[in-house]
From TrEMBL, chain A:
Belongs to the ABC transporter superfamily. GO terms for molecular function: ATP binding; ATP hydrolysis activity. InterPro entries: AAA+_ATPase, ABC_Ni/Peptide_Import, ABC_transporter-like_ATP-bd, ABC_transporter-like_CS, P-loop_NTPase, Sigma_54_int_dom_ATP-bd_1. Pfam families: ABC_tran (PF00005). Keywords: ATP-binding, Cell membrane, Membrane, Nucleotide-binding, Transport. The keyword NADP does not apply. GO terms for cellular component: plasma membrane. This is ABC transporter ATP-binding protein. Its main location: membrane. It comes from Teichococcus wenyumeiae.
From TrEMBL, chain B:
The keyword Membrane applies. It comes from Teichococcus wenyumeiae. One of its GO terms (biological process) is protein transport. This is ABC transporter permease. One of its GO terms (cellular component) is plasma membrane. It is found in: Cell membrane.
């Protein structure tokens, strides 16, 4: 069993999108394609699978078990799906039919592709699910399963038809660190079981977990290839080096400063949501010049804790006191999804002008801050959806800084950004906080990030997971 | 068809109907004046669109009907839109008992199909105009209320509003910059559909005899009157039907999108 | 089952609303109530003050209005709808016969519309952007701009008068049902075709449909297993809303085709100011609407497991 790709090129209406990529994939040694959004790595997977978006064309050779499949008509390409080539869906909770029980979605492959009897199919499926640790989950619907369980159900359904080649496109998109690790382990087990495995990701940590070979793509070209983990331990190309350095674990730790006056102080904070206790009597004090991180899994109440301190949510019990010297608008927030935090129909400059007018700020306040945040003045006429995520988050920082806050609350502010952009925005945030001697409260699910930036880390555990 | 061409076509249809409404006064003939010796004439001569079974001028009657539909039906829809949207925004912003009360009221009104509600209201005084239009407004405001309240509540739950409040902005700013840009297009689309419903309702009720009554020149009641003469004067029957169709289709096309 | 509880509350609301409206109608109508009722019963020429007084006594119009309202709702809660002012017939008896006709017409109309709308919608949705999609889109837009009575007149003149295929109006065998049912069905089909098309197109573009194909399922199997049910959920929910069209259409179409159902009776009652009859017919139509909505809720509940457990 093998997959050989020779000089694969993908062209679109605006020209060459992927420039001549070649690789050989053998059983037991996964191939990881690393690169950021828009580098063309997903197109490569689609070209192999045979589901390129309309208007795009692939050239070169894709040889699966000795047969060049690229010139085959679409019907014959479709016939390979599931049986010879399988693709693990992105965001499995969206890829499973919401109205069908989990086991039935796996079982139907046995019945309709392998033409097994109902009884056989049920037994095969039960065994498959049990192997993935999903006993008893088959009777439930996808919305009754956790994200990790959905991912395993999707994997069971993907491999049910018995394809020798498994492609996974961004399998860890939207997962927190813990789920990412289990997903990595599952995929590695697939490769060890003798499948050809092609994984596409921008997550360096996932690449380390998988091992095997790796290729790094930058704007449609492979800039570096080699074996893992050597390639990541001793990167040669500048882009790979930056990619590796952008991993939070490799960051330089932020300097710790002497805490000044207390900005806000929460005592014995309790909060329940939907009958579940998130916080059970927590004390937290944040002072000027201090960086405090709150980390934990998704749903553990870390965002709620920040909102309590900012007065955006009410405690069930306990008290929140802000320093008497802190101005009414002296605590500001950066949001996880910057796009949702701006009025979508309004140019960015208009929003800032409104803010300037509302608070009687100096006419050139915005113009002074733009270069500090490495933002181009030309972006002011654009709407939030017309700038990149990193730029928009920096605009979020800009409008907060205009009010000279005593404290900033960064709520997973960089978790949706590419690794390089994340590093960029976090560094800028750190510099601004230091220059202005502000307090910074960072909420994150990445333990490594929390370690590097904060002088104090508070780990929240879920009461019952 | 692209959105802008759809809108253009819809606008042209409405302009044609509005043109007929304006032609009436220029034409200067009393829509009620009978001349039995000129009954059921084809278009031509002194009667550009012919006459009906009582020898009344069709153009004058169609124009008067257009003024009725355009003037009063659209006014009723407009009143419903303004009231419903304001109440919807109020409910979303205030929340609490005000919102619960308004939602309960909306439920009560929507428990009955709109036409049934209008018929019930018109039953107070069959043939009179005021209850007819009041009934239409009463039935139509609910959808404006629901759509604007739901859209506004959706926006209010988004981080963008929390961020605006953190930055020190008040309710006026949130209304202007955050709620209105989301709610306005929905209300505009709904208005086009609601106006279509109003025009159809006025005509349908007049047709069955519950709404406007002869000799009032209303498109629906004109059709009732002319139905027995379909063989002699098919055009006279077709014209009011065509105008209703053009008005409603024009409004739907102008809306551009599907209603939510 | 909380859903159906909500519908029960709605049913009570309908009764209260219709009851109050009709009561107010009796109280607020201009002129002497008793005199006018007597007039509608015996004709204007035969009415004198004695007859009016008799009516006043009979209906208890001289009691305080709060007592009257109480009595009104007490009667209503026993489903005692009184007698028709115009014919003297028991309202409940008349309604029973009319409801039968209306149900026959509604079921026939729903049947025709389901035969036309959803299948065409599925075809258009699976090939959205194709020629069939374009034609159906234009056709359904045009149909939705034609009020039911205009459509009915058109069908009547064309199929019954010109071609003489079907009887013009009235009631009797199955041939009489076709025209009014078709009139109602075309409007419903236009709406359901459009919604089905959108729902099918949305499902066909959904990640789970794509995944079903990637698993190795053929197009037909993928649509049968994952397309139909998921597309049906929004269609059924929307059809529930569109039932308003059916109820409203019934009023107009029954009048046009002289179909002796509830809608026809309602219009007559309003014209004749036969208030017990107005109340009875409006009540039954309102309740019919609630029952149809409850059935829609039930269908959604059966189709969508998320509703069952949420």
């Amino acid at each position: 069993m093998s997959l050989v790709v020779e000089n694969l090129r993908i062209t679109g209406p605006e020209g060459l999108l992927v420039h001549g990529v070649s690789f050989t994939l053998l059983p037991g040694e996964p191939l990881v394609l690393l690169g950021e959004t828009g580098s063309g790595k997903s197109l490569l997977a689609q070209a192999v699978m045979g589901n390129l978006p309309p208007g795009l064309h692939a050239g070169g050779r894709v040889v699966l078990d000795g047969q060049d499949i690229l010139p085959l008509p679409p019907r014959d390409r479709r016939a390979l799906w599931g049986r010879r080539i399988a693709m693990l869906p992105q965001e499995p909770w969206a890829a499973l039919d919401p109205t069908m029980r989990a086991a039935a979605q796996v079982e139907e492959v046995d019945r309709l592709v392998h033409r097994r009897s109902a009884h056989d199919a049920r037994q095969h499926t039960a065994a498959r699910l049990a192997r993935l640790g999903l006993d008893g989950a088959g009777r439930r619907y996808p919305f009754q399963l956790s994200g990790g369980m959905n991912q395993r159900v999707a994997l069971a359904a993907t491999e049910a038809a018995g394809a020798g080649l498994l492609i996974a496109d961004e399998p860890t998109k939207g997962l927190d660190a813990e789920l990412r690790d289990t997903a990595g382990a599952l995929l590695r087990a697939e490769a060890e079981a003798g499948r050809l495995l092609l994984v596409i990701t921008h997550d360096v940590a996932l690449a380390r977990l998988l091992g095997g070979q790796a290729m790094v793509m930058l704007s449609g070209q492979v800039v570096e290839a080699g074996h893992l983990p050597v390639l990541l331990d001793a990167p040669r190309h500048g882009y790979t080096r930056r990619l590796v350095a952008a991993e939070p674990a490799r960051w330089q730790a932020w300097p710790h400063r002497q805490p000044g006056r207390t900005v806000v102080k929460g005592r014995n904070l309790r909060k329940s949501l939907g009958g579940r206790e998130l916080l059970g009597g927590l004390d937290l004090e944040v002072a000027e010049g201090e960086v405090v991180a709150v980390s934990g899994r998704s749903g553990c109440g870390k965002t709620t804790l920040g909102n309590l301190l900012l007065g955006l949510a009410r405690t069930d019990w306990g008290s929140v006191k802000r320093g008497t010297w802190v101005a009414p608008l002296g605590m500001q927030k950066l949001y996880q999804d910057p796009l949702a935090a701006f009025a979508p129909h309004q140019a960015l400059g208009q929003g800032l002008a409104d803010l300037r007018q509302r608070h009687g700020l100096a006419a050139d306040a915005v113009r002074h801050l733009l270069p500090r945040l490495r933002l181009n003045q030309a972006l002011l006429v654009r709407r939030p959806s017309e700038v990149s995520g990193g730029e928009l988050q920096r605009f979020g920082l800009l409008r907060a800084l205009l009010l000279n806050p005593a404290m900033l609350f960064a709520d997973e502010a960089t978790s949706r950004l590419d690794p390089l952009t994340q590093q960029d925005v976090m560094m800028l945030l750190g510099e601004c906080v230091q220059e202005r001697n502000m307090a910074l409260l960072v909420v994150t699910h990445e333990a490594a990030l929390a370690e590097k930036v904060a002088s104090r880390v508070i780990s929240l555990r879920t009461a019952a997971a | 068809m692209t959105l802008s061409r759809k809108r253009l076509l819809g606008g042209a249809m409405l302009a044609a109907v509005a043109g007929i409404a304006l032609l009436g006064p220029l034409h200067g003939v009393d829509p009620l004046r009978q001349n039995l010796s000129d009954a059921l004439l084809p278009p031509g001569g002194a009667y550009p669109l012919g006459t009906d079974h009582l020898g009344r001028d069709m153009l004058a009657r169609l124009a008067a009907g257009a003024r009725l539909s355009f003037g009063l039906a659209l006014l009723a829809a407009l009143l419903a839109a303004v009231a419903g949207t304001l109440l919807g925004l109020l409910a979303a912003l205030r929340g609490g008992w005000a919102e619960r009360m308004l939602l309960g009221l909306a439920d009560a009104v929507q428990a009955l199909p709109a036409l049934l509600l209008v018929v019930l209201v018109t039953a107070f005084a069959p043939g009179a105009f005021l209850p007819l239009y009041l009934g239409i407004t009463l039935a139509l405001w609910v959808e404006f209320f629901r759509i604007s309240r739901n859209a506004a509540a959706g926006v209010l739950a988004r981080p963008q509003v929390e961020a605006a409040r953190l930055l020190g902005f008040g309710t006026g700013h949130i209304l202007r910059r955050h709620l209105w840009p989301e709610v306005a297009p929905l209300v505009a689309t709904l208005f086009a559909f609601a106006a279509g419903t109003a025009v159809t309702t006025v005509a349908a009720l007049a047709f069955v005899g519950v709404g406007a009554r002869p000799p009032v020149p209303e498109w629906g009641s004109m059709m009732t009157e002319l139905l027995p003469y379909y063989a002699e004067a098919p055009l006279a029957l077709l014209l009011p039907a065509l105008l209703i169709f053009l008005t409603v289709l024009g409004l739907h096309l102008l809306a551009g999108r599907e209603r939510a | 089952m909380r859903v159906l509880g909500g519908r029960a509350v709605q049913a009570v609301l309908v009764a209260l609303l219709v009851g109050t409206a009709c009561f107010l109608m009796v109280r607020l109508l201009p002129g002497d109530m008793a005199y006018r009722i007597a007039a509608s019963r015996y004709g204007y020429d035969l009415v004198d003050s004695a007859a009016a007084e008799a009516v006043r006594q009979e209906l208890g119009l001289d009691r305080p209005w709060l007592v009257q309202l109480g009595a009104w709702f007490a009667d209503l809660s026993r489903f005692d709808l009184g007698t028709s002012l115009a014919s003297g017939e028991e309202v409940a008896d008349a309604l029973r016969i009319q409801l039968g006709h209306t149900l026959l017409l509604s079921v026939a109309a729903l049947f025709f519309s389901l035969l036309l709308g959803p299948p065409l919608g599925v075809l258009a949705g699976l090939r959205s952007g194709g020629w069939l999609d374009g034609v159906l889109l234009a056709l359904s837009a045009a149909l939705r701009a034609v009020p039911a009575f205009v459509l009915g007149i058109g069908l009547m003149l064309w199929l019954a008068v010109e071609w003489e295929w079907l009887p013009v109006a009235g009631v009797g065998g199955w041939r009489e049902v076709i025209l009014p049912a078709l009139t109602l069905a075309l409007g419903l089909a236009a709406a359901s075709c459009r919604v089905t098309r959108d729902a099918v197109a949305a499902v066909a573009a959904s990640p789970f449909f794509g995944f079903a194909r990637m698993k190795g399922l053929g197009d037909t199997a993928a649509f049968r297993r994952h397309g139909l049910r998921n597309a049906a959920i929004p269609v059924v929910a929307y059809l529930g809303l569109q039932l308003v069209v059916l109820i409203e259409g019934v009023v107009v179409v029954e009048s046009l085709f002289a179909w002796p159902g509830i809608g026809h009776a309602l219009v007559h009652a309003v014209l004749g100011r036969d208030i017990p009859m107005v109340q009875g017919t409006a009540l039954v139509m309102g309740l019919l609407f609630v029952v149809l909505n409850a059935l829609t809720d039930l269908a959604c509940w059966l189709l969508d497991p998320r509703r069952r457990t949420a």
